[in-house]
Amino acid sequence: MLSRVAENLYWFSRYLRRAENTARLVGVTNQLQLDLPRSVRFAWHPLLDTLGAGETFHALHPDSAAAVVESEAVHFLLLDERNPNSMLSALKAARDSLRSVRETVPAELWERVNGTFLWVGENGERALMRRYRMDLINRVVDDSLTATGILTSNVSHDIGFQFLRLGTAIEQADMTTRLIDAGASGLIRPRAAEELDAYQATQWMSVLRSLAAYQMYRRHVRQRVSARQALQFLLQNAEFPRSVTYCLAGIRHTLSLMPPKGRAPEEALRHTLALAREADADELVESGLREWMDRIQLGLAQLHHAVGEAYFRG
């Protein structure tokens, strides 16, 4: 397979998963705000920062230093093409990557992805209103899952498919760590500091739901949501497809099916997998998660770089 084709398949799967996760995240925060009492406000700053979009947002909205306006944050995360990680930017990048390799994938995949991008472009601004917001989010999530189903069921599981799996797993692991970080940073801001503990479970429940993990958490853990249990589940559960450990184990299996290209990808993966598996949830909840999540994200960045050097530029 040409390295150009492999790289486009890899990036297509990353961008598609990024669009889906961003849509899910905004959908859950939308519902969370409706559920919170008026005395409690939702903080957009931690969410923007952990998604790597804080600096860009504040540069575009200089008046937001004191408080982020909901409508501006939602537009920035969903539809602002000046934000390279917005849902629309991710859909556009996925469509552009897929366009150059259309001959290698089923025609219905291109029709689905292209149709989603065009629909969002035509209906997105209207759908930003709270009344219609979930229509936009559900359309993108459903179409992304349909595209994933087409790839899983209708594409030969050859070397090209392995690059698709590789991109999906790396992107999901990265997004999961970012959402864990956002949850720990304090998305819910009660007026009185002593009320924060009362809302901690609600905050972590929103993180689980943003990853479509709440029902599986209840099935595996069989306890009420707590920061320690939620963190342990999202980092270390070996059976849930969006947990960091599951994604990294999937990458290890995928690399074993691909032509060997040196040891750099395996070494980067081994280091990152050890960070996820050895994390002490109790200690991290007490001392703070950000540094540990940053280390995992750095490991994922090194893995991405090693894969690029080995298969796309080697």
Automatic annotation (TrEMBL):
One Pfam family from the record: Alpha-E
Residues annotated as domain DUF403: 1-312
Stored InterPro entries: ATP-dep_Glu-Cys_Ligase-2 (IPR051680), DUF403 (IPR007296)
Coiled-coil segments: none
UniProt-recorded name of the protein: Alpha-E domain-containing protein
Source organism of the structure: Dokdonella ginsengisoli
